[in-house]
Specification:
Elements: E1 3-5, E2 11-14, E3 19-25, E4 40-47, E5 49-54, E6 57-62, E7 65-69, E8 76-79, E9 85-92, E10 112-116, E11 130-136, E12 141-146, E13 151-158, E14 160-165, E15 168-173, E16 176-180, E17 186-189, E18 196-203, E19 211-215, E20 221-223
Antiparallel strand pairs: 1-16, 2-3, 3-9, 4-7, 4-9, 5-6, 5-8, 7-10, 11-18, 12-17, 12-19, 13-16, 13-18, 14-15, 14-17, 19-20
């Protein structure tokens, strides 16, 4: 299990379904207009504040928040604060970016959705990505599961998590990022005294969404979910 920090400027995942990396924009600066015609983009803002423009609409963003841009939607980020605007960017699946010279005249269906991390906000339904916020009360746990065809990425925003990936168990906390490849079993438990809050992405969004297991009397695990279609 490899655990990254979300502020270390590296690529957290890069496979056929998702490329997730950390980015930043200097104060007063704007990123180029971006459009991914065949990819959804999820952005988690963890430091600073700014705005995201899509066509004729401008949305204010402030850490910690996340946004979702549906495939084909052109958007542009601008740092409106006095410190760096830092964020994680997940392109699902990885495809070349286009940089239009100008914004579209009007926002089309879908566009950009701005979401909150303090409730169960979810990324709008898409076949390319599933995810959003996940919470677990102290002492709570999620038994062993896996994804047949999807990469899952956890970003810990609050609390402590005892995470088992395959045969390895580690305790992770605020700012940790963990990417779990497809077909790798994992389970988690909240060993702390406070609520665990995590941002989760699963790429792509397949059905059934999870592979579940039941523990046998001898301690082994037996798969009980059908294979993803």
């Amino acid at each position: 299990m490899i655990v990254f920090k979300m502020d270390n400027g590296v690529v957290f995942a890069d496979d056929a379904t998702v490329r997730m990396e950390s980015r930043e924009i200097a104060p007063g600066m704007s990123a180029p207009i971006e459009r991914y015609t065949a990819s959804d983009v999820a952005l988690l803002f963890f430091e600073g504040h700014g705005e995201v423009r899509v066509a004729d609409r401008v949305h204010t963003i402030m850490a910690v928040q996340f946004t979702h841009a549906r495939a084909g939607s052109a958007f542009q980020l601008r740092n409106t604060g006095g410190a760096r605007l830092r964020y994680l960017a997940a392109v699902c699946p990885p495809r070349p970016v286009e940089h239009p010279r100008a914004h579209d005249a009007k926002a089309g269906p879908g566009g950009v959705t701005v979401l909150s991390v303090d409730k169960y906000d979810r990324i709008p339904d898409s076949g390319l990505i599933r995810g959003g916020m996940f919470f677990l009360e102290p002492g709570g746990s999620i038994p062993q599961l896996s994804q047949d065809e999807s990469t899952k990425i956890f970003v810990v925003l609050q609390g402590q998590c005892e995470l088992t990936v395959g045969a390895e168990t580690r305790r992770v906390g605020h700012g940790d990022v963990i990417a779990i490849p497809r077909q790798v079993t994992h389970s988690l438990r909240n060993p702390g005294a406070g609520k665990l809050a995590m941002w989760v992405t699963v790429t792509p969004n397949t059905s059934p969404s999870h592979t579940r297991y039941e523990q046998m009397p001898d301690g082994s695990w037996r798969r009980v979910s059908p294979r993803a279609s």
